[in-house]
Amino acid sequence: MLNSITVVIVSFNQLEAHGLASILKEHYSPITVTITTVSELHHLNRADYIFVSATLYRKHKTLFDQYHKHLIIIDDGKRQKAIPSSIPKLCNTFHESEILHRLENIFTQSNRTFHPTENTLTPREVEVLKLIAKGFLNKEIADTLNISLHTVISHRKNITRKLGIKTVAGLTLYALMNQLISPRDTQ
Amino acid sequence: MKLITPSMKMAEVLESNYLLLPVLSRFGIKLGFGEKTVRDICIEKNIDIPFFVAMLNTFSNENYFPEEEIHTFNVLAIVNYLRSTHTYYLQTLVPTIEQLIDTLAQSRSQHNRSLKSVKRYFREYKKELIDHLKQEDTVTFPYIEQIYYAYHGLSTHQRRNISKEYSMKMFKREHTNIDEKLLDLKNILIKYISGEYDEVVCNAIIFELFRLEKDIIDHTRIENTILLPLVAKMEQSLKCMKR
Ligand SMILES: [Fe+2]
Ligand SMILES: [Fe+2]
């Protein structure tokens, strides 16, 4: 069974919030993403991760600091005063692949309380795994799924880390044993 | 694990780590040690004591490195040891695992199709392993022997015979990893095997995979960190002599 993650994004910037939400949904489903402003705080209690814009964080520091273990600050990459270095940051000027890389680090940091995606493959990762097992190269996977090469590589890294399987042969065996592909696919 | 020393009794060494048994065989040492020490047996069998002890310690402790002794090691002795390790893989350990996997794939779990995939996986790994070992047995080791004789014999004739098509640089570049696929197979069986299967056989396979993996990691470490630098040094001084 896949564990669902609950994420709350607190931001006035709608483009930023919806952009992040769509990236999260694409790569971490099943996932519940709620976009909110500070007015509806009941969401925060149930969130595994709270993404908050730097401006709002500074304004309501005492409030957000209660959730410091769940917080991720969205900033514009400029040096921020009053933001503790212990809180992970996500820069809104990043490319998608950089954002994915940061998210992966944030979600897997061992001192964080939650590891919702640990060891379970997302549906997208399963798609990538199937293609790897069928012998597709990175470029071919990118073309087939219509995603960037960077994203393919980032998926591969995550698959390897989650399953603990390094080699293509090993991933293929895993896919066969779990009937993700049939032996005919590998010939 | 405490370091093995020449004054220890051989029986006690084995008692401390029974996995060393095949290592002893590679040096031609047979059971029936009585009260003999490591030193006694080495003298009897005409084995270089520091080298033998270093091999035991390298095998027992992955962080051990024979810093001080390495320059006294005879390159031919290292090659002989590595060659007999190859033989052990090909004639003993790999066939044992292969047979067990065959049994696993055949047994009552006929309908467990995934076990057939395990069989195919290992067959392919075996091919790769054989290629790797063959390359070393037929290219790398003979080249190293030539270097050794030229270095010690110093005759121009012998020096001229050294292959120009090969070098330790090439070995370093082409030396492939042969433990990753093994590690993957072990992990896959441990973490993801499902359906009906013969537990006794599967446990035996995992046990042997652990053994082969450990042995291969130790073997590769000897090739990369002991043999390679020693031969590269000889290569270098031969080059200087030519000038
Ligand atoms: Fe070897
Ligand atoms: Fe090797």
The secondary-structure class of chain A comes to: alpha/beta
Bound molecules: fe (ii) ion
How does the overall form of chain B come out from the CA principal axes? globular
Catalogue the unreliable spans of chain A: 110-117
State the helicity of chain A in percent bands.
40-55%
From N to C, what is the helix and strand string of chain A? EHEHEHHEEHHHHH
Largest interface: A-B, 15 and 19 residues
Question: Tally of extended strands of chain A?
Answer: 5
Rg of chain A over CA atoms, rounded to whole Å, is 18 Å
CATH class of the largest domain in chain A: Alpha Beta
- The tally of beta strands of chain B, per DSSP, is 0
Mean pLDDT of chain B: 92
Helix/strand order of chain B, N-terminal first: HHHHHHHHHH
Supply the number of helical segments of chain A: 9
Helix segment count of chain B?
10
What's the arrangement of secondary structure elements?
The complex is a heterodimer of chains A (187) and B (243).
Chain A (H helix, E strand, L loop, with lengths): L4 E6 L3 H15 L2 E6 L5 H5 L2 E5 H6 L1 H5 L5 E5 L13 E3 L4 H13 L14 H11 L4 H8 L3 H15 L4 H10 L10
Parallel strand pairs in A: 1-2, 1-3, 3-4, 4-5
Chain B lengths: L9 H7 L4 H6 L11 H8 L3 H12 L14 H32 L6 H41 L2 H6 L6 H7 L5 H13 L6 H44 L1
Helix pairs in contact in B: 5-6, 5-10, 6-10, 8-10, 9-10
